[in-house]
Amino acid sequence: MFKGANTPVSGGWKGRFAGPLARRVRSNDHLVNADPMGAQAAVLQSLLSRAATTVFGKDHGLGDVAKIQDPVSQARAFREAVPVRDYEGLKPYVERAVAGEPDVLWPGLPKYFCKTSGTTSGAKYIPLTEDSLPNHIGAARRALLHHVANSGSAEFVGGKMIFLQGSPTLTPTPGGVPLGRLSGIVAHHIPTYLQRNRLPAWDTNCIEDWETKVEAIVRETAGQDLRLISGIPSWVQMYFERLLAHTGAANVKEVFPNFSLFVFGGVAYAPYAERFRELIGGDVATVETYPASEGFIAYQDGSPGEGLLVNAADGLFLEFIRADEYGRDDARRFGLGEVEMGVNYAVVISSNAGLWAYDLGDTVRFVSLAPARVVVTGRIKHYTSAFGEHVIAEEVESAMAEAVAQHGGQVVEFHVAPEVNPNSGLPYHEWFVEFAVEPEDAGAFAAALDARLQERNPYYRDLIAGAVLRRAELTALRPGAFRDAMAHRGKLGGQNKIPRLANDRSMAEQLLAHG
């Protein structure tokens, strides 16, 4: 049934070439990133010099800032000249570029616009330039090469690779610049030597409806020697489940014996780990990345759990605002040389795509300073704080992973929302969980979730101890509830991420309606 079953595992000539290249890239990356402050100073100087004569540059005096020789003084002057903006704040400039006006945010016209969905802005159009594209493509390439250098294995390059992503179909903006999803744009720049290894086929990748697309991918890949799979865990999980239903196989390894590497980004993997282990039929190596439409921020350069290496010398000038100061007029912006370990920061990015002090919306925590490494802790606006507790994604993801390890069960997906006005009793946090395999004792599982969250969040613990809140409640949902809720929101598949946390009941009500 499975044509790839007896394929010998070998990287072939590509594997032999990848080893020495990987070791050179790893050595160079570690050398460059050993001095993140120096790397960032060079990036800022380059950005200021290039953009000095743009519309934005003239409006904000970037040419004068570029003349400042001392890096610390230059960074301070930049912060005084350019305030932090979200997409709405930058939108007047973006709209001029979308209309076809050159030299607005960056010299010339963008090469592409990346279309993303916003919560308050509707569709957002993020510029990608000839200068910024190497950041997206090169960082992904370096992440894979670090894996090769660290593991000594390049087996995946000798077989097929699949990237679950958005459609590569592009449409022109009013100014004639191609517009599409980031993953679809990047698909146009896959190196020629990898094109024959890449799945799915172009026509399959262009299918817009996610359910139809996954079924087509399943049919196309079922007999292939697939070795690398990349995508957001929730949607890869859906692909695995459909694959096993189609083939009748017991696990993914039975379909793809040489499957050896899973590349993911966007959400924490730990809550999915047990379910993936069962679907795959064992463990498989993983590489975590931190890509965004605005820039490829960081990637795994060591073992899982050691944090992601910040892309300090690749066209991105990064600043950080303490999450507990976020939104304040006097909130300080810190550079890579000024951050502290263990603090939750909101990420601000300036780039050679023409983004300037742009509020990315993500939060990170540093686990190393030189080189700079981070773990992604969530979204600055995705939290639960109806009672002042400010619970973040990292906390609930860790609590879920430990509850599963302690009490069993396999989690498909979950979401946490406050119940402010219960029919009786004190308010509480409600955990909506879709299980593939339910734990033997749901009450003990819910108690473990609550206890682990109290350990991580002292504000939540104090609210429980002070009888402001009662302990969390668990609501188990039927299979497919999250998929149906996301479809109802128009966010099924591709690069869409399921919100782990909310400060209201909007996602909760949709889950209940489909659960």
Summarize this structure briefly.
The protein has 19 helices and 18 strands. With 515 residues, the protein is an alpha/beta fold. The chain folds into 2 domains: 6-379, 3-Layer(aba) Sandwich (Rossmann fold); 393-514, 2-Layer Sandwich (GMP Synthetase, Chain A, domain 3), CATH 3.30.300.
Task: List key phrases describing it.
515 residues; alpha/beta; 2 domains; eleven-stranded mixed beta sheet
Broad shape: globular
How are the strands of the largest sheet arranged? Answer: 6-3-7-8-9-10-11-15-14-13-12
Low-confidence stretches: 1-10
CATH-defined topology of the largest domain: Rossmann fold
Task: Explain this structure.
This protein is α/β, with parallel strands linked by helices. The protein folds into 2 domains: 6-379, ANL, N-terminal domain (Rossmann fold, 3-Layer(aba) Sandwich); 393-514, GMP Synthetase, Chain A, domain 3 (2-Layer Sandwich), CATH 3.30.300. 38% of the residues lie in helices and 21% in strands. The protein has 19 helices and 18 strands. The chain has helices at residues 12-33, 36-51, 55-60, 62-66, 71-81, 87-98, 133-151, 182-186, 192-195, 202-205, 210-221, 233-247, 252-255, 273-280, 393-407, 442-456, 458-465, 481-488, 506-514; strands spanning 112-117, 123-128, 160-163, 171-172, 178-180, 198-199, 226-230, 261-265, 285-292, 295-300, 308-310, 316-322, 344-351, 358-369, 372-379, 410-419, 428-437, 473-477.
